[in-house]
Amino acid sequence: MIQFIGGSTGTWRVHELKAITGESLAIVTHLQVIEKISQTYSGSWMLSGFSSNVRYAQKVEKEKLVTVQEGLGRPEATCAALIPIRKSAAWWNLAQDERRAIFEEQPHHTAIGLQYLPAIARKLYHCRDIGEPFDFLTWFEYAPEHATAFEDLVGKLRETEEWKYVDREIDIRLTRV
What we know:
Elements: E1 2-7, E2 12-21, E3 30-34, E4 45-49, H1 59-68, E5 79-87, H2 89-92, H3 96-105, H4 109-114, E6 121-126, E7 136-142, H5 147-158, E8 166-176
Antiparallel strand pairs: 1-3, 1-4, 2-3, 2-8, 5-7, 5-8, 6-7
C-alpha cells in the first residue's frame, strides 16, 4: 500500500497542480509519499493505492518493460509527477479483451512508454478496488534534463483512444526537496 499526502510538508515540493479533466484536488505546496504506513500523517488530501500484477500487457511486452525500466528513487531523478486518473463507467462496462484492444492494440500504450525508458521511471498503483476517488495513481520520476521527454510522453498518451474514457485526471508536478 502507498499513500500520497498533499499538504504543507513533505519530501516533494508541488510546482503545479491542475485538473486536466473533472474536479481538481485542493492546492497544496508539498507531497509526502508513504510506502510503509506505520503512523498517521495529515494533509489536505490523501490518495491511497496498491501495486498489482501487470494488466493488459502480454508476456513479451512485460519482459521488455522489466528489461529496460529503471527503478524509482534514483538520485538524479529530482523531478516527479503524480497523475491520478479515473475512467468512465463506459470503460469498465467493456469486456477485458475490449479494454485490452483499446489500451494496447490500437494506440500501443506500452510501445509509447518504452520509447521513454529508462530516462523516465514509472510505477502504477491501483485504487479502484479500495474505494478511492481515482482508479489509478501513476507516479513518474525523471531527471530535469528529461522534462521535455516527459511532456512528450504524457502528450502522446493523452492523444490515444484510451484517454477518451478518462473522466477525471489531475496532473501534479513536483521536485524533490
